[in-house]
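Hi there,

I know you've been waiting on this one. I reran it after we fixed the sequence typo, so this is the corrected version. Both the input and the resulting structure follow.
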Amino acid sequence: MIVIPNTWFDEKVQEEAATTEQTAALKAYLEDDIEAEEAGILLTADVHQATLADTTSAEEINEELCKLWGFFIDVIADWPSEHIKVANLLDAISKLPHVDRTGRDSLDRFMDATGTVRASELWQDLPRFWNSFSDFWHSSAGWPYSRPESSVEKAANNEWTNLNSFAAIVFMGGPFADMTLLGDWGCYVIKKATASDYEPIGVHIPSAAVHADASNFAEGVTKEQAYTQVLLQAEGLFDGQRNWVCNLANAASLLWHAYKSLPHPSNQVNWAGFYTLDPQATTSKRQLVLGPFQGKVACQSIAFGKGVCGTAAETQITQLVPDVEKFPGHIACDGDSKSEIVVPIVVGGGEAKKLVAIIDVDCADFNGFDDVDKKYLEQLAELLGGSSDW
């Protein structure tokens, strides 16, 4: 896991982008020394105090808010490995106690989910954050890359790619995924950018996040959030790459690192990878052959209908097995494996429907997988089926 160096925090203090107290609070949170709520309270303390003073104008508060959010945006733009933790921190800030500004200048006005135009509230609306984020997104640093001509140009600006990766994470599976965005222009623009059919952008946002940091998963995230990151990063990695060996290898790495970031039992996964249809096998004797994986050496070939993998291949139905010893004909490639999930990867439809590979994940503990794993691994299987030339 990447750790933001102290020099980066020192630079932010020197640039007056943040105070020493704010950098210390964020650093402690990212290193899991304090929880998101405590970090949120410390980071927003200066703004909070300003809002309590009757003499502080809305304009002055907005200036302090923009400075605070600018610090957050710097983290987002520079450190993609921390995106999920930053999203969770923003979520925690939005749930801090309400600050009553009745009778004072409005911080901002917008249309909420009910269609009512009202003043932004501290902290539930995160006033000014989304607009600040959007302004940076449209800045001279990022805007030239909003209509890239090639995949090289898509990756040419790290800040641009990181901002889009963050937007995709928070709006497609993060804490703000269900947000209703009627009147907040900044929020609307960023969420709209995550849609693959958004013509003015012309870029599917996940394709921006193609770098080694794709395999960095923050600790403390939910299984749903980890899988969401897997899918987003996989889609970016597959963009412009249709070689199935390459795509399966990267997918295996993403899954492996995702599981290791999660609590028990997911962190007990001891094998994650793929078997593919053996092109040399006869129609009457179909079999799978070992593909890219993470874990110990494995069985090199498995006949259709044999064991968990062969059954998934034969039936083209996901096999979720809480205890492999109770599965008829189980093939023990690794004696440490206690539970398993196997998901078929199929292409085509109707009579042309064909199995091309299977996702196989083993766990060294019983009941290692559930319907959440099934849901997201089936989405990954669909993505792989359509993103590779088999």
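Quick highlight: Residues 6-209 form one domain.

Best,
R. S.
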